[in-house]
Each structure stands twice: as structure tokens, then as C-alpha cells.
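Practice problem 4.
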């Protein structure tokens, strides 16, 4: 079994869901967002929503940025070999 097949067969269990809400007041050109985190229990039910803090979002973005920093973006030069 190759590595890709092994990864596909791994059981992933959801632990939380991030839900974003958007409010638009078109008369006053006002748009607001609210983001909440809902824990998911062992039975698969979502718990009560918890407002997401700036600290949580910063940690999430830092983790994503570190993971994606090694992936090149934009056009790849023709003389560059891909491994």
C-alpha cells in the first residue's frame, strides 16, 4: 500500500467547526462579520458557539502561514527542475 492510500484510509475525527456570519446593512454601507468556534462532541453533535478571539485567529493564521511558506507561488521558471 503506498503512502497516499495509507493517508486516505486514516480515520479523521472532527473536533471543532468554525462558523462565519456576515451582516450587511446596505443603507449605511456597513458590513460586519462574526466568527464562532463550536466544539464537536464524541457523538458528533456541535456544542454551544464560542466567539473566536484575536489570539485564536492569529495562532490559526501563523500555523497556516508556516505550513504554506514552503510552497512556491507564481510562475515557475522554465529552467527550474521540479522534484
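Answer key:
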Amino acid at each position: 500500500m503506498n503512502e497516499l492510500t495509507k493517508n486516505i484510509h486514516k480515520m479523521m475525527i472532527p473536533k471543532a467547526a468554525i462558523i462565519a456570519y456576515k451582516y450587511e446593512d446596505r443603507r449605511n454601507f456597513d458590513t460586519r462579520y462574526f466568527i464562532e468556534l463550536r466544539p464537536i462532541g464524541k457523538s458528533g453533535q456541535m456544542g454551544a458557539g464560542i466567539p473566536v478571539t484575536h489570539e485564536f485567529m492569529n495562532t490559526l493564521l501563523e500555523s497556516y502561514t508556516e505550513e504554506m511558506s514552503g510552497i512556491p507561488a507564481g510562475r515557475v521558471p522554465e529552467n527550474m527542475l521540479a522534484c
